[in-house]
Write a structure and sequence with these properties.
Elements lengths: L2 E10 L2 E11 L4 E5 L6 H8 L7 E6 L5 E3 L12 H6 L3 H22 L6 H16 L5 H11 L4 H4 L8 H15 L3 E5 L7 H12 L4 E5 L3 H7 L2 E5 L5 E5 L2 H36 L6 H13 L26 E12 L2 E12 L3 E5 L6 H9 L6 E6 L5 E4 L13 H8 L8 H6 L17 H12 L6 E5 L7 H12 L4 E5 L3 H7 L2 E6 L2 E6 L2 H14 L6 H10 L13 H42 L2 H5 L1 H40 L5
Parallel strand pairs: 3-7, 3-8, 5-6, 6-7, 12-16, 12-17, 14-15, 15-16
Antiparallel strand pairs: 1-2, 1-4, 8-9, 10-11, 10-13, 17-18
Helix pairs in contact: 3-4, 5-7, 10-11, 20-22
């Protein structure tokens, strides 16, 4: 046993975050701590790390057990390098090495004087040498370099001062220190929050080899599924329950436990109702008064079963039905973007079609957020062209969206500032869908938690119907329940989605395309995140690391050049059908472009007619007003016909594109 929690509880004022928490942790255990925001998960980790004490119960530790806590608050003004900070985790090894050097110096001096080395000195040196070697002292430089590289720090970054890094990168330094220190128990609070997908893969491999115990608070469901063997559930209402098994098993057990609890409550409610009816009926009768009194006492002693309604405190998120857009929703052509001398993109191309859900993947710093902001129109570029398709309405959720909220404004005021006039009457109902009801809407933004601010930002984003959503890490700060509700809403969304996320479950649920962004280049993969990984692995197996040049030359002399793969030739009939399809596709694309141009022209004329009516001189002339109204009606009819024609052509093109792109069409 490394540690044991016995009936521990923590409260804030009169409210209990959790009570009766009990858990025994042994080496090799992987415990996931889950629950809604504000349920006390981080408080529990602080108690286990010895930074805080429980308000009831106790926590016992094995003697000399070492505990490592992933720090969330880091001083951003430190001037020493990343490598120096990481090496602080090896201070105990440095102390051992320093003592060994002192002993070596003393033994050398004894030898020079012809004296025998004292037995206790030799024994102490042997103990220290064994401890130093066992703790990896001779490989510590390589260990530091390997761990920092795995977390995304290249050689140049390791030498930079800490003050030049963002909070997310400083969190990685703390994670590196934790791995280097090798405690028996690791306490991890949202460890994947600031990691990119390649770093998460490295991190998971390292955790798989960690021999100690892990207690993990995380909203990353893929991470929990892969690593957790037990779950401690804090329900946000003061209750705490432990579940054996992995994360999916926990979900099943929780549902079964709730069903059982509901059945027990129904039975108890029936018994209580019978007893209350008996008391009400007979307490005034002398012959039954004693029995009635007995039942009243029994009622007072009953420990009543309470079951929270799952639907009470969950977001009821529904994205407004978007207007139909053109087939090509957004395109980038020959985009060049630099930050000073750092060239991010040199001629990048990108297209998103109607209804696609495109996820951008790749390491931090590769340019995902830059590309997303260019797509959203929130960032200028030096060269190239960005085009939005016909009738495209766009909304952008940026990583800094939470910082852009006014801390002095109330939730309702924040949305009112953003809303249009006809939105005002439905603002309270809209906020209710995001768990802000009653007096909650009058709370100041500055007092909200990260999760609450994220909900406000999402409420602003989804206030009006749009057909292109551009999202940069939308699940940050949301608890698991809120992530799942957002997924459900986006899964039924009829528009086009382009997003960046490090939540692999989120990507798997939504993506129809994954674009890998790396070194200024984009590589396209059809499917979700698992499909992307599968094709990446296949590609790496087919193209292993090239051997040295001499070896290649020797192989070239001895082996015949491989033949290019032969493609089955098309029959005459197939070639004819293929030419016909491509001809129809070109014809429809030209027709759609012409129709869109006509719609734009007619809508412009309609707008001009509206401005003419606003002229007082024109408005005073009844004949002119009648002429303009007649022209408006004619324009409206023409526009309606053009839209019908455009939708018909767009549907034909979509059907034709599906046939042309299918595997059987080659």
């Amino acid at each position: 046993m490394l540690l044991q929690i016995q009936d521990a509880g923590r409260r804030i004022g009169a409210r209990w975050l959790f009570k009766d928490a009990s858990l025994t942790v042994r080496a090799g255990d992987r415990v996931g701590i889950v629950g809604p925001n504000g349920s006390g998960k981080t408080s529990l980790l602080s108690m286990l790390a010895g930074q805080d004490s429980p308000d009831e119960g106790r926590i016992q530790y094995q003697r000399h057990v070492q505990i490592g806590l992933l720090q969330q608050e880091i001083d951003p003004n430190q001037t020493h390098s990343v490598e120096e900070e990481a090496r602080r985790a090896l201070a105990s090894l440095d102390a051992i090495e320093q003592e060994m050097r002192q002993l070596e110096m003393g033994m050398t001096q004894s030898g020079e004087r012809g004296e025998a080395i004292p037995a206790h000195v030799a024994e102490r040196y042997d103990v220290l040498s064994t401890q130093f070697a066992h703790s990896g002292g001779f490989e510590q430089e390589a260990r530091v370099a390997r761990v920092l590289a795995g977390l995304g720090f290249d050689e140049e970054a390791r030498c930079r001062p800490l003050s030049t890094f963002s909070g997310g990168w400083l969190m990685r330094v703390e994670l590196a220190k934790l791995f280097l220190a090798q405690p028996q128990i690791m306490l991890l609070d949202e460890p994947t929050n600031h990691l990119d997908l390649p770093s998460i893969q490295w991190f998971e491999e390292e955790l798989s080899d960690f021999p100690g115990a892990l207690l993990i608070v995380s909203h990353d469901r893929t991470f929990l599924r892969r690593h957790v063997t037990r779950v401690l559930d804090l329900d946000g209402h003061g209750r705490c329950a432990s579940y054996e098994g992995d994360y999916d098993s926990y979900i099943e057990q929780r549902a079964e436990r709730r069903t059982l609890l509901l059945a027990q409550k129904a039975n108890q409610d029936r018994d209580i109702a019978q007893m209350e009816r008996f008391v009400e009926r007979f307490r005034a009768k002398a012959t039954k008064a004693r029995q009635a009194q007995s039942r009243m006492k029994a009622l007072d002693k009953i420990d009543r079963i309470e079951v929270e309604d799952d639907s009470v405190r969950t977001m009821r998120l529904r994205i407004p039905e978007p207007p139909r857009s053109g087939q090509k929703v957004v395109s980038l052509d020959d985009i060049h973007k630099s930050y000073g001398d750092n060239k991010i993109y040199q001629g990048v191309e990108f297209v998103a079609q109607r209804g696609e859900r495109v996820a951008l993947a790749g390491p931090n710093g590769a340019g995902k957020s830059t590309l997303l902001r260019i797509i959203a129109g929130a960032l200028d570029f030096e060269k190239g062209d960005r085009q939005l398709g016909h009738q495209v309405e766009l909304a952008f959720f940026a990583q800094h969206q939470l910082d852009a909220l006014s801390s002095e404004a109330s939730i309702l005021e924040e949305l009112t500032r953003f809303a249009q006039h006809d939105d005002i009457p439905r603002l309270r109902g809209h906020l209710g869908a995001f768990l802000f009801s009653g007096d909650d809407v009058d709370k100041k933004i500055g007092v909200l938690s990260g999760g609450e601010k994220a909900r406000v930002a999402l409420a602003k984003l989804l206030l009006r119907p749009v057909n292109l959503l551009v999202l940069d890490e939308p699940t940050n700060h949301l608890d698991i329940g809120s992530c799942e509700i957002l997924e459900e809403a986006l899964a039924s969304y009829k528009g086009t989605l382009v997003f960046v996320s490090h939540d692999r479950t989120f990507i798997n649920r939504l993506a129809t395309r994954v674009i890998e962004v790396e070194h200024g280049h984009l590589e396209d993969f059809i499917g979700n995140y698992d499909d992307y990984l599968f094709r990446k692995n296949q590609s790496e197996q087919k193209n292993p690391i090239s051997p040295p040049e001499e070896s290649v030359a020797q192989q070239a002399d001895s082996a015949p050049a491989p033949s290019p793969p032969q493609k089955k030739p098309l029959s005459k009939e197939e070639r004819k059908r293929d030419r016909e399809r491509r001809k129809n596709k070109d014809r429809l694309e030209r027709k759609i472009q012409k129709t869109e141009a006509k719609i734009a022209e007619q809508e412009s004329e309609l707008e001009k007619a509206g401005w003419r009516l606003a002229d007082p001189e024109v408005y005073a002339d009844a004949e002119k007003v009648a002429e303009i109204h007649a022209a408006q009606n004619e324009l409206q009819a023409t526009i309606s016909e053009l839209y019908t024609e455009w939708e018909r052509a767009s549907d034909e093109l979509t059907a034709l594109t599906d046939v042309t792109d299918s595997p059987d069409s080659d």
